[in-house]
Specification:
Blueprint (H helix, E strand, L loop, with lengths): L2 H28 L12 H10 L5 E2 L3 E2 L2 E7 L2 E8 L15 E7 L4 E8 L3 H4 L4 H8 L10 E3 L14 E3 L7 H22 L9 E3 L9 H6 L3 E7 H8 L19 E8 L3 H8 L1 H10 L5 E9 L17 E5 L2 E3 L2 E2 L20 E6 L11 E10 L5 E10 L6 E3 L11 H8 L1 H19 L1 H7 L3 H19 L6 H13 L4 H4 L2 H14 L5 H6 L2 H15 L9 H8 L1 H15 L1 H7 L5 H6 L6 H13 L6 H5 L2 H10 L19 H5 L21 H6 L6 H12 L10
Parallel strand pairs: 7-8
Antiparallel strand pairs: 1-3, 2-3, 3-4, 4-5, 5-6, 9-19, 10-11, 11-12, 12-16, 13-14, 13-17, 15-16, 17-18
Amino acid sequence: MHACGLHSSIRLIVFLLCGLLAVLHASLSLAAPSASPLGADTSVVRQDILDLFPKATVIGDFQQDPPLWPVYQLHELLGYAFESRHLVDYSGFSGDPINLLIGIDSGGRFTGVKVLQHHEPIFLHGLGPQALQDYVAQYAGIRLSDRVVLKKPEGGVPADIEGTAYFDAVTKATVSIIVVNDTVLSSALKVARKTLEEFAQRSPSIVKDDMFEPLSWRQMLERGLVKHWRIARTEVETALDAKLSDYPETLWSDEPDSDAIDLYFAYLNAPSVGRNLLGEASFEHLKYGLRDKESAVLLMSGGFYNAVAPDFKPGTIPERFNLLQNGLPIPLRDLNFFSSVGPRLIDGAPPYADVRVFRIRPSSGFDPGAAMQLQLRFDLKKNHLISDQLSMTSSYQLPATFFTRQAIIEDAAPAPAWVRIWQSRQLEIIVLGISLILLSGLFVYQHTLMRTMRHFTVLRWSFLFFTLFFIGFYSQGQLSVVNIFTLLVEILKGFDIRVFLLDPVIFILWSFTALSLFIWGRGVFCGWLCPFGVLQEMAAWIAARLRIRQWCLSDSIHRTLLKFKYLLLIGLTLVSLISLDAAMRLSEVEPFKTAITLVFVRSWPFVLYAIVLLALGLFINKFYCRYICPLGAGLALLGKLHWLEKIRRRPECGSRCQMCRKRCQVNAIHANGAIDYDECVQCLECLAIINDRNECAIDLLQLKQSLRQPARFKPQPI
């Protein structure tokens, strides 16, 4: 053994022991353990309820239907507290449900959400528990009827969006956050349906599409199918106790001297209303543009104050006009229905230019057969500092004969989280699929391509950059040994593929890796699809450019150190069978979460560990892959069953020529020329050498020998 080999081996062994002990200690000490399941009668959960209801003086006994605690201030009901585990069973990324304590007040508004139990690895061992606590804190104060959007729009939240709550989502934990949101909203809605009157399910009204009667404009007004609401100027001034001329800053209509506001309102889905008002062609066009169970209403106004402001933006929500039902606002959104052609209504309708059609989504809880209130709001500005507000209301209801009532049907559960995630990541899935097809083609036709390809290095580095930045940093597609542990545990307790479908990129990569293992071996993933592996390739490239002297190890020491990653794999697998949570913490020997998932934004022990591993790659190519990676060990074991040994060798390889062996950066070629597929990362550099006559030593030697052969003697003519 060379002296440098002995000294390097000692340094490596010391690093392996000290470094692994340090990072495991950090993972065990810094990761907050998940809370234990809380029962219905523990003092701990009662204190948590008091945190959600600071004014509470009495917490009632736990009820069974629905499962909750009523919360009182003296004898006044403040609201309800409940655990999500009693109401829904949505599995998180770890495969286990997330248990939350949720509070809602008697008005259907969240008082807060607290995390009681979870096993989500990104929060336990990555971002930390505070990131999840900060996320759930955003529910406090929003109404159950609000639509939660897990992304804030660029440029800030629009002022014209009502009934919508924009949350700061945790970008590195998309799957877990979606499950948390589903858990909060679904469990809270189940409680509200049974405890709060305004959320109680009522028999829905269904429009009779076959009920139509030709009617004139006057007939529709007389029957109340079109609501005419006239508000006199004097009526507004009386309510304000001021003259309208005192508000010169207000955006008045084109008829500021009119003595009244004339407002017309109609529900268009009913054929006797919509078909008569719009005409046959426009009515069919409207129905075609509406989605299932959506409603449309018509609003037109004239006079000194329009129901929509002059600066109203098409496609948005009106600020001046509102629709109420059971005291709750019904969000309206402009359809911009008359954008291409001006409004053409039934003969006799007033020729107002301000005619709008608004959409009502089914999620708003709108019942077209029930009474509704029209609300016109006035924001009258005297100057840029002083303004007065006023709202006026009027009722509207269609005849019951226009509708049928259906039996109450339980709300359908939301589409499974994995379905929505796949739909939202379609572009990533398509790009990833195309890249895997191209990579498969490269391996299937590798010999043909190598004979004709002059710039293989450019191709390889292009794909490696794609792997690092798109698959790794952007799509979070770093496979981990934790995925193997999760699979083992799922198989033992009852396999549920939905757990693995929650992350489409990981699922597709694992499916492709599993298939390629049995065709080409582990190298397809380790050499082409591992983002952390790309970082190590970059470290080796930097070392070559800086001419950093490589540490030399004897072959025996090298072979001994190769066994270390298998020992890690065995140890972690045994721990996972006892405690998956403990195995996830111990799997911090993988720097993937630190370097790829969190991009080095983490506690310093983990960052230092990942940086040291990459720094060692400057002196030993792919140091981590070769000696530590338990994932690589697992793939190598499965890869022993690979079907093809596609990397072509020549008879002279090993027996006469050692060039590929010396050029192999991971020492995966034996002295006899055979390839060690357990360690080979399928970089295909050796194949590129063999097919390049300017690189292959055998071809160069044959060319040299042919040039040295003496020319045949040709007798000179006498």
